[in-house]
Amino acid sequence: MRCVIARFPFDLTKSGVLEIMKGVKPEQVVGESVIIGRRTYPVMQVGQVITRQDRRDFSAGEVLRAMTRLGFTCPGLRRAAAPERALTPFQRAAALLGAPAAV
């Protein structure tokens, strides 16, 4: 499959990526990651190994898109749920009484 990473086209296959990453020791995962085989690699490490380019030349999004299209699992950062808006004293009292609160 043809993928564009850092403005350069690459013909990647799932088996080719597995072969390239076979002897590579994973770095510690801090952000986005890709599961290749039984190992979890940081996205930027995968991009660097596959493209042989500096990590500053491409974005994590480019590599994530390519790896997802090849069929690899790319678990993202676990996003914290957005905090709920604090209720005003009037809304809190209305909720306790069971009456609809005015917004």
What is the CA-CA span between the terminal residues? 52 Å
The chain-level structural class is: alpha+beta
Q: Major sheet: size, sense and barrel closure? A: 2 strands, antiparallel
Instruction: Report the order of strands and helices.
Output: EEHEEHHH
Put simply, the count of helices is 4
Low-confidence stretches: none
Please tell me the overall pLDDT. Answer: 85
Instruction: Work out the strand percent.
Output: 15-25%
Q: What's the total number of strands? A: 4
Bulk shape: elongated
Share of helix, binned? 25-40%
Oligomer: single chain
Radius of gyration: 22 Å
Main-sheet strand order equals 1-2
Describe this structure in words.
With about 100 residues, the protein is an alpha+beta fold. Helix content is about 35%, strand content about 15%. The protein has four helices and four strands, in the order E-E-H-E-E-H-H-H. The strands form two sheets. Strands 1-2 form a two-stranded antiparallel sheet. It has a two-stranded antiparallel sheet with strand order 3-4. A hairpin with a 2-residue loop joins strand 1 (about 1-5) and strand 2 (about 10).
Summarize the structure.
The chain has four helices and four strands. It has helices at 14-20, 43-51, 60-70, 89-97, and strands spanning 2-5, 8-11, 33-36, 39-42. The radius of gyration is 22 Å and the shape is elongated.
Keywords, separated by commas or semicolons:
single chain; alpha+beta; 35% helix
Q: How are the SSEs placed, and which strands pair?
A:
Layout: E1 2-5, E2 8-11, H1 14-20, E3 33-36, E4 39-42, H2 43-51, H3 60-70, H4 89-97
Antiparallel strand pairs: 1-2, 3-4
